[in-house]
Amino acid sequence: MTFTTERLTRLRRRLQRRGLDAMLVTQPENRRYLSGFTATDHGINESSGVLLIPAAGRPLLLTDGRYRLQAEEEAPDFEVLVYPRGLFPLLRRLFNTLKPRRLAFESHYLLHSVYGRLAKLAADKGVELVAFTELVEEQRLVKSSAELELIEEAVRLNEKVFAQAYRQLRPGISEQETAWLIEDTMRRSGAQGPSFPTIVAAGPNGAKPHAVPTARKIKAGEPVIIDMGLQIEGYCSDMTRTVVLGEPDDKTLGLLRLVRRAQLAGQEALRAGVSGRHVDQMARRVIAGAGYGDYFDHSLGHGVGLNVHEGPTLSYRNRKKLRPGMVVTIEPGVYLPGWGGVRLENMAVVTPEGCRILNQDTTFLNV
Amino acid sequence: MTFTTERLTRLRRRLQRRGLDAMLVTQPENRRYLSGFTATDHGINESSGVLLIPAAGRPLLLTDGRYRLQAEEEAPDFEVLVYPRGLFPLLRRLFNTLKPRRLAFESHYLLHSVYGRLAKLAADKGVELVAFTELVEEQRLVKSSAELELIEEAVRLNEKVFAQAYRQLRPGISEQETAWLIEDTMRRSGAQGPSFPTIVAAGPNGAKPHAVPTARKIKAGEPVIIDMGLQIEGYCSDMTRTVVLGEPDDKTLGLLRLVRRAQLAGQEALRAGVSGRHVDQMARRVIAGAGYGDYFDHSLGHGVGLNVHEGPTLSYRNRKKLRPGMVVTIEPGVYLPGWGGVRLENMAVVTPEGCRILNQDTTFLNV
């Protein structure tokens, strides 16, 4: 039995309960979660394969010839079928033999243009298509202990990499050089790679929460947002520190303290049974109370797993209750156009009584 | 006038000719091409903004607060509007004022789930949605001289990086270390970053055309496929060399010669007025003639520009005539399960009489 067997069994039961005969899985991390096939897609237009999982019967992994060997090695629970002439001729043949009446598909990871072709084929073959947006994602929300171990390993390595790179930073190094140093250190430390392009935003650039590193040289005294993540066996870490090379001025110190207090309020509020919305509010209230509410214009956090951004979200949109074993970021920030920004981000796993913070690093947190 | 003004004017004329009142642009490279806004998206579920371009009137860039400053700096032809509560409430307001009757959208870069919301809004407001799959892509097929310069610059830098990294390779270095060395050299050389994750596939791993670099150490004498690309101001290069550290054996040499002959046949056939299918056939015939037809199971090449994979494709699917100013790869390969693979890839710009090969590097080509 492989680690995917139990996941498949659960999914099949859920399909059966909903009266579905099969599911077409197109989302790459769902594909990996259910099959073990580690190929990544270069964008949604370049899929390296899809799963066709009957509610009863052997699951199928459909891919093109380039991935045959890898798929066979990595996905032993699946029969690997190759489509030499694209997915649709193969799907047509499979619909003829499997004869699904009701087929689930991933509405949030299927292009309108591809859906058009699928709908035509389904109509030809008398298959009813049923749209889902988080059938597999729901299953991924609560992490198993094996998944938690990989995530914790990723967080630990992330901190090690950050500490090692941080020691080498001096005023005059550019944002880009800093980002490369971090990613280079990641790789030399055994990470599979970054979970997203490293953000290094110094001085005024820090006012853009998703700034791309530039050739700008970091000056002593200015706040520098470093937002980085790495992957181990597909599982992601995500961590932000705001550092100052040299002495921070009073404004920077004040904002660091404020953002840290907001983060602590969020961490304090985080526990099973409360909503993502509630946790967001508890942190946001601290920043709003200091008059900076308009300058914290993103949600407090998001889930992390095989995707660096996944459910559950800690935002006003999420009224659902958090459950033990969910993993989220807590990342309040304040962004002042023309001046710069401060953001602090930890990761935590939700527990029945509260949460367990996965981070140990306290660089510039205890100000 | 910025470089986007002329592109917008052309698009508007094309919208008017088709009786369209506006276009919603969701594809990130189309967004960059038309606006200058360089933000990249972390997957299709995390858009950093969309364009709403009326056939007449000021074009709009809709983004969230995190990108406001960057969008305003980079897209001066556009009015930047921020959606604090997601795209759809803002679109609803804009439909009220712009009152488009027929709205083009990008069917190949809009999720089925998002289309569902758009269709509902459109029905509410009496807007007819018209699906397109390559309206902007068609405009991007033929490169301007400014675009060609950037692409050539990317190819030149790619070769410099390859040559520099290649000199440092010795038997015993792993595939991963080789890939990192290449990407590190890229960055130190001023590239914006890789245009796709570098492929290094040694020995049997080379039988997987899209292999991910592993910890496997490269042995003397075995073929190593190195497929790499970088970006300069968004424009991509893409180049593959198959190298041998030490002396290649006769089988490797024979396959290198065969693949090189197929490449030369493709380059010979490439010119304005012939189809992508024809060029693919001319190269494929060489490999099939030697009895390896079943082991070349991908298309001969693809267009390159702001996307590392874009139109036109050199494959049996493409019966359209190639035009001067198109940029394509020519990349035949032979992949033998259990043994390994050989692939050679150059980039070329189509000219009226033939093509101009953008590559100078001949490492292991003239065997």
Automatic annotation (TrEMBL), chains A, B:
Entry keyword Kinase? no
- Could you confirm whether the keyword Protease appears in this record? yes
Report keywords, A-Z: Hydrolase, Metal-binding, Metalloprotease, Protease
MF term (GO), any: metalloexopeptidase activity
Classification via InterPro entries: Creatin/AminoP/Spt16_N (IPR029149), Creatinase/aminopeptidase-like (IPR036005), Creatinase_N (IPR000587), Pept_M24 (IPR000994), Pept_M24_MAP (IPR001714), Peptidase_M24B (IPR050659), Peptidase_M24B_aminopep-P_CS (IPR001131)
Peptidase M24 domain boundaries: 149-351
Q: What is this protein called?
A: Peptidase M24
